[in-house]
Amino acid sequence: MESKRSWAEPYKIKMVELLKMTTRQEREQAIEEAGFNTFLLKSDDVYIDLLTDSGTSAMSDRQWAAIMMGDEAYAGSKNFYALEDAVQKFYGYKNLVPTHQGRGAEHMLSQLLIKEGDYIPGNMYFTTTRLHQERAGGIFVDVIVDQAHRPQDDFPFKGNVDISKMEKLISDVGADKIPYISLEGNVNMAGGQPFSMANLKELYTLCRQHDILIMLDATRTAENAYFIQQREDGYSDMSVAEILLEICSMTDGCTMSAKKDGLVNIGGFFACNDTELYQKAQNFCVVFEGLHTYGGMAGRDMQALAVGIEESVQDNHQQARIGQVEYLGMQLIKADIPIVRPIGSHAIFLDAKQILPHIDQDDFPAQTLAAELYLESGIRAMERGNVSAGRDPLTGNNRRPELELVRLTIPRRVYTQAHMDVVVESVAEVYKRRQDIKGLTMVFEPEYLRFFQALFTRK
C-alpha cells in the first residue's frame, strides 16, 4: 500500500501582515477589559486569531484582481450575473438572491417558509439559524445521529441525519407542520462533521414521500464534499466539484455564508430552484437587504465571490485547507489533549468537559478555557458550549449541551504550519495547569446570541 505523502499549500506568499506580540501582563488587562469574552478582544491584542473562519480567509491574486472589476451600478450589475453563473455552475441552483452575509439568507428563508407552530428539524442546531427559526415562530428539533453528541466517537459521518428521528417527528406532528429540514454541511457545532451521500439519498427519498423541502446550509458544503471523496465508498474517483453538484441536486435550495467556503471577507446568498419561492425571496430582499441584484453586497465583492467559489471546489485547495486542520488535530492528539474526533473540516474542537471536569457547566468551562488560552500566548479561540447554547425559553435555565467545546478555527490560506505548532504548545501548557483553573460568573447577558456580547468575571 502506498504511504500517504506530505501535502503542501497550493500557493505561494506574496504579501505578509505583521503580527503584534504582547506580554502576559498586557493580555491579563485585555481579557479583563473584554469581560473574559474573546469576541470582545481587540484584534490588535491577538497574536494568532482562531476565533472564526468567517470572513477571515486570504483572498487570491485573482480575487483581488476581481475587486478592481467591480461594477457598482445600483441595478443589474454585471458582477451579479457573474456570481449567478458561478452558483449555477458549481452549486446547480437556478435562482440566486445575494445577501449581506449568511444570516441575511437565514432570515429570508425562515420568514418565507415558517409559520407559527411549525417544526424545523436539523442535523444539530447552529446559533443564528435556530434563532431565525424561532423568531419566525418555528420550533427547532435536533435529528442528528447520536454519535454527533459523543466527542470521542470516531464515526466518520457524524453530520448524518438520524432517519428514524426524522420519521418519528413526521409521525408525531404531521408532515404539513414541517416546511423543510435544515441540513448543514460539515456540522459546525458537532466539530465540523460531514454527512454522507448515502444518508442524503435516504433523506431525499423520505422528504419526497412527504413533500418536505430540504434546505441546505451550504456554508461549508464544498468541504463536506471533500470528506465524501475521502471517506465514502464510490466517490474516490470523483472531484470535489462533481460531488458538490450531486449533493445540491438532492436539495431544494440553500442559504450560504460566503465568508467561509467562498473565500471572501463579506457576503452570502439564498438560492433555490422553485420560481415562486424565488420571486418571494427577491421581494423580501428589496425590503431587508437591498435590490435583488446586489442584496447588501458591493459589486466588487460579488465578483471576488464568483472567483472564490471556483477556487473553493478545487481538489488541491481542499486537500491543503483540511490538511492543515488535520495536522493541528493530530499534533494535539499526540500531546494527549482531548479533542472532538474524528478531526473535522474547519476547526479543532477542544473537549472542555474532559479538560476541566472540575468546573460545572453553569460555570462555563469552555468560556474559561478559551480565556486561559488567550492568556497563555495571545491565541484567540471561541466557546461552543453552554454560553452558545443559551437558555431554554420555557424554563429559563441554561441548556447545558452534551458538547462543551472550544473551537480553534483555522482561516483559509492565512497561517503556516509553524503557527499550528505554536498553538499545540500553548494548548499543552494550559492543559498542564488545568487543575488550577477556576470557572467564570456571567455578569451581563444580552437577550439574543449571548456568546457574542456576554460579560464574565473570575469566580
Output the keywords.
459 residues; alpha/beta; Aspartate Aminotransferase, domain 1; Aspartate Aminotransferase, domain 2; 2 domains; 3-stranded antiparallel sheet; 14 strands; globular
Discrete helix count = 16
CATH topology of the largest domain: Aspartate Aminotransferase, domain 2
The residue-averaged pLDDT reads 96
Low-pLDDT parts are: none
**The first-level CATH class name of the largest domain:** Alpha Beta
Outline of the structure:
The chain is an alpha/beta fold and 459 residues long. Helices cover 40% and strands 13% of the residues.
Q: How would the blueprint of this fold be written?
A:
Layout: H1 24-33, E1 48-49, H2 61-67, H3 78-90, E2 95-99, H4 102-113, E3 119-122, H5 127-135, E4 139-142, H6 163-173, E5 180-184, H7 197-210, E6 213-217, H8 221-231, H9 240-249, E7 253-257, E8 268-272, H10 275-288, H11 299-312, H12 315-334, E9 347-351, H13 352-355, H14 365-377, E10 379-380, E11 382-384, H15 386-389, E12 405-409, H16 417-432, E13 440-444, E14 455-458
Parallel strand pairs: 1-10, 3-4, 5-6, 6-7
Antiparallel strand pairs: 2-8, 7-8, 9-12, 11-12, 13-14
Helix pairs in contact: 1-14, 2-11, 3-11, 4-5, 4-10, 8-9, 12-16, 14-16
